[in-house]
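Dear Dr. V.,

Thank you for agreeing to look over these. As mentioned in my earlier message, I'm a first-year student in the group and I'm still getting used to reading structure tokens, so any feedback on how I've presented them would be very welcome. I ran two proteins. I've put each sequence directly above its structure. The first is here:
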Amino acid sequence: MELDSVSQSEIVSKDRRPDGLGDFIVLPDEIVCSILNLLSPPDVARLACASSVMYILCNEEPLWMNLCLSKENRELQYKGSWKRTTLHGLQVLDKCVDPCKKPLHFDGFNSLFLYKRFYRCYTRLDGFAFDQGNVERKTDLSLEEFVQQYDAQKPVLVPGLADTWEARKTWTPEQMLSKYGDTSFRISQRSSNKIAMKLKDYVFYMQEQHDEDPLYIFDDKFGEVSPDLLKDYSVPHLFPDDYFNVLDSDQRPPFRWLIIGPERSGASWHVDPALTSAWNTLLCGRKRWALYPPGRVPLGVTVHVNDEDGDVDIETPTSLQWWLDFYPLLADEDKPIECTQLPGETIYVPTGWWHCVLNLETTIAVTQNYVNSKNFEFVCLDMAPGYQHKGVCRAGLLALEDNAKISMEEDNMSSSELTQKKKKLKIDEHMDDLSFDKNVSDLEFSYDINFLKMFLDKNRDHYNSLWSTSNCIGQRELRDWLWKLWIGKPGLRDLIWKGACIALNTNKWSKCMEELCSFHNISLPADEENEQILMEYGLHPYSLSSMTSESGLKNHVPNILATGIVFLENGSYKIMPWDGKGVPDVITEHSTIDDIFSGTEYPFGIWSKKLFEYKKAGMPLEELVSLGGHSNIWPYIITKRCKGKIYAELRDKLLEEDVSNLASFLGKQLHDLHVLPVTPLNELSYLHIEKKLEMGHDNGTMDNSIQNINLSAASKVFFTILNRKKKDVSIRLTKWGSPIPSTLIEKVNEYLPKDFVELHNLFKDENGKFMEHNCCSWVHTDIMDDNIHLEQMKESGNGKEGSWRPSYIYDFSNMSLGDPILDIIPIHLDIFRGDVELLKKLLDSYKLPFGKRCSSDDGCKVRRISYLAMCYCMIHEENILGAIFGMSKELRTAKSWEEVEEAVWGDLNKYF
């Protein structure tokens, strides 16, 4: 007995944590595990050797799952565990078979955080059904009844809509595996990478896995990879309309998904994109649903809205974690609307409703999101620029009220959970600008479009405002969509007009256009015509006209019909002529510009635009916002009506010969643009700017490398802008994220030059001073597929329509002074889509040197044209790199920027 007693006392092991974690012991396990997720697999493997505690933490399956899924995009093949799968991807699995099988020993170590996660990984959901749910079930629901009682109002569960579908019989795991086993489907997971798995590999994964949040087939391209699947079902009669149908398949946002998932998988709390409505039909298995009305954020969920562009980010636990950890804390009156969906049932989720889904067993389903007359205005509202209204649409009055008004049962919440709740949406500092009849705190939240519209920023410039990356389509695509609806659905024009007024402030611009046309005696454009009415700051029309009068550009820039200034005064628009010379009184009286450079008779021309770029380069966001302000004064240009179509509409219809001719045409136009004389500005001009703006380099003075070079004033400003943009490039690229590889973002500062002056061909004069060889030219900066008009020619003799000929290039509002290569970048990436042969065709007709550069094989990287082009892409204000890596999946595995440079721009080095 005494020996047994001693043995028992010896079994009680010493706590491993102090020795095993060292200084990390002050951090909770949740933070330590979060840090481990930031490491690479080799670093995790090395850290596992540091101590027994680190060995336990570094061999946890959820960690290796995250490490594996954070790898570059690829087709995944599960190997029985996430560590084995990761090592297989690194091609080191054979060397590490035994460590993968080695059991973990936990004596002397305990962790509530790891235990909860382990429990969630192995819990069974047999008893999770909620068959007596409070979502209405309606059999034989008619379309009229659905529209009156449910559409855009409340959810409903409808049995029988899939009874006639082939999918009702054939969409089972066994039959789909037999027919589509070798087909790859996209996987939904909390990873920025797009991951796919063959169905046979995914079925193996479902059978073997024990993940808290299992991988989930959520494929919006299943109809393209397996067209037969589209024949197995049809859209239920309750949902006949989808206004996105007017868009071509490659233009419309994702709208239908094949969903396959095992027990414990599901969709965490979210509101469907663009505030669309959705229907979801279950073919196999059971799903548990929870829903909250619009504006009521579920417990445990935090909503963030980006102050810049309104991009909405949601922090939410997994669906299983929410039901296990948060659901039990809810009082009965705070619980969501719930139901268990059975095979053959279709659930309808209205616009703006929060919902969460948990698969109780292996499930197969199909779902579609759509826009109809009931939610059209909400969809337009969600895509309007700004951020306040987006927060209200998702978080309701939580987006406006202070933390004290958050109605949560705080006694049952941990300090970390309370901290998350206090991270709710910021109160907008400009709430006082809203013209409410009563205090915001007294308002009842209403998901009424007229109520939600009150939170729009009425003064926001919809054309120049940042466009949210969370929007389902871009700003140009939105205008194109509304236009196609206007033409294709004339019976809906009242509704379409309301949506356009919400999303684009169309009523404001329409009134303005009416005043302009009336003042200049120009007829209003007909519905079916394309009128080019430009209202932009930038190059003044008369200087543009004089610049093109003696060059080849004159035949391909639309004629200017009228110019002037339009301004809003006492609720009505006033028009005054202005030739661009001097400063009109209306601008002097209303402008916040503290200094107007008087060195030219066109104070608001290119040079002033360059100074503005110089001033804002490297500025913090808050300064930029105040710098932009809201203006009620617009200089404008009205150009002639351009016949034909833009290249964006014709891209897929043009013959190869037409596209080749377009490339040659663009080369000739760039030549004519880049040889135009640049207005000289003296050194005093630049010194005046430097002193006035006080925007030198870090030490407050102009960089010595620029001071010691005899550069033109324009070039000094240009180089200073480049150097200032370079300072925050890592932050900007990290914010953009995928598809830019994170491994390359880490190397960006190493790749870029110390000073951009190094990139230009400079030589010493007889006095030993550096001189500039490749000076700044006029550049358009954004010739893209919607800037080019083409006309269809008549075939000689028979009157039939033939090839398409380039006719006009327009939108010179971004005209600037800079390196000619800046015009090559958008053309090659947006118009040519990286086609090297088209680039060569352009260069053949361009016939201007980019400067005397060294050849690409002499080791002088800063003198490669390809290096210069790559650097411009990296520091560009727009996400040029996202376009590059989005266009070429192969480049996402590049190990260095030099590799990307050679692939995209290498052919420039052959051009001299």
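The second protein is here, in the same arrangement:
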Amino acid sequence: MTHDQAVTDERGRMKVRSHRRFALAALALALAGLAVPAAWLNYRRSLGPLDLSAPRHGSAVVVDRNGRLLRAFTTNEGRWRLPALRAEVDPRFIAMLIAYEDQRFTEHHGVDVLALHRAAAQWIGHGRIVSGGSTLTMQVARLLEPREERSLGAKLGQIVRAVEIEQRVGKAGVIDLYLSLAPYGGNLEGIRAASLAYFGKEPKRLSISEAALLVALPQSPETRRPDRFPGAARAARNLVLDRVRAHGLISAAECELAKLDAVSTLRRAFPTLAPHASEAAIRRAPGQQIHRLTLDARLQASFETLAKESAQRVGPKLSAAILAIDNASGEVLAHVGSADYFSQEGAGSIDMTAAIRSPGSTLKPFIYALAFETGAAHPETLLDDRPTHYGAYAPQDFDLSFQGAVTARKALQLSLNLPAIELLAEIGPARLLARLRNAGAAIALSDEAAPGLAVGLGGLGVKLRDLAALYAGLARGGSVPALIELQSDAALPKPEPRRISEPVASWYVADILRGAAPPLNAPAGQIAYKTGTSYGYRDAFAIGFDKAHTIAVWIGRPDNGAVPGLVGRQVAAPVLFDAFARLGGGHDFPPPPANVLISRTSALPPPLRRFSANAAGNARGSVGAPLKIVFPPDGARVDLGLSRPASGDARLALKAEGGVPPLTWIVNGAPLGQPDPRRQTSWIPDGAGFARVSIIDAAGATDSVLVRLE
């Protein structure tokens, strides 16, 4: 073999060996490429499923209609972990957090490889951990799965979880998790709890100094707590300020000014607004974290202060309750259940808006509304305020005096007892109670005897909440709203409104109450209102409304003790007018309905000019058959073709029997012409809907029916 051949053969063998080594190396790399992902997957499986539910197991919070915090509750472990999202936090805080904790946050996928290399090099060079190389995502992983030890195994677990977290929720979700879980000292978790506790404000309104302190605290929450270690807190805050200034997030001047801010050493209490409404919301949905109410936090805080100050002025052991309603929607804007929730002497834990109390004279407007509705009286009808006996019952006016003949308007404005009882005797207590109950009020009566005339002066039990809804019904033309406190209920289909009176009667009552004399130094004619004082001076009420709002006030002792001098007009009415002043806005009232009869007493139809108890009722004292409307019957649905095109006028025939002619027909509060000796006539409706048809004879007897025209 020649030398050249030998060299050629050797080169061939070397080439073959080289190819073999390359193939083996490629095979090894391929096997490693398969092994590493397999190992990664196996390790990931060994950690178990990722649980991101921790923020959902935080503090239950109750917020107002605008998202402002009313009250928060600790977790089962006694921690304050309030939910927080990026949109609810000052954007400067987010920028400062990223600049200080994780500069390449937007570039990596949960793990910053460069930071890990730097940390490893520092560890090898110094023999100890100098910097951890953790990203914000890795910190979130540690918060979700806390471990006591700081080891390579723990770090590897954080790395795996960080990648998994970003795959699940992305960058925005990582920030949201951090904002809810980061520790801030003691039992505070999450930026919202820390901002409220240390600064008394929501994190949306943080100053530069405050934001820097909250960036620094989670690194060492216990040793930097401003309420215990203000010096350490200040040093950590200033370090953050210097770092973010170097990154250009704030100017040098802003940095120096922020460093001059004192570090607050206080830890503030969390808000406890609307405690009764908040607890009711928690009881209704115990597993829910965020409960949104229809209340307005600003108004609620103002009314709670008003209730506390008002009760303290009256005397010891007294409480107060205030309820404010949006008439259009029925939403409750303020719910003050007691003067001081934490007062044991005043039984502050009892929600007096839901307590059964004697309403005093606050039911009188509904007596008058029924009388106006049935045609028994008109606001200008003369009533007798004089001593009268109804069997053994002999009511008296509050001041024990008598006014003689007064109009129904004046009698209601002065809250005279005798005219109200005179009308109630004509209407019947059972009819009044049925109307109140049908309108949604829960009425409590004694089981010992049938309801008598005393119910008109407060001889029954009712809740302030129900009274407020009834008065809101007057403001709405007789349609009582269903009261709503949870915003979730506002989205539900609304039930059919219940009626407390017809539109004309409601307008009459509202117009009368608007003319009632206001308390001393209060403006007149702005709101329609009525006061009430229960028997024995145990309860003082004042309820008022305009077109937009209704406010109800109660003052008294929760234990039902008597308080000499506790009179609704003197004690509760000033609070009502103060509450309306705090509510603000104008005081509009709806215009009169089409069928309102505005007239002097002398111009009224003769049966309406003066009410006579001896002649009232179904022909009491009259000769012959009792007065009765025979067509249309009460509750009937009459098809007049009002919903279809008609060639001529659709007329409703009206027929009566009995009574003493001449007869006066009244439809929806308006008389149909002059008294007529005939017992039948007709009426042209102005459209489909309900109509109240009443009749009065010459002796003052009345009858009334409610029909639906179609």
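From my reading of the second output: The chain has four domains: 1-46, 79-260, 356-583, 614-709. The first strand starts at residue 61 and ends at 63. Does that match how you would interpret it?

Kind regards,
E.
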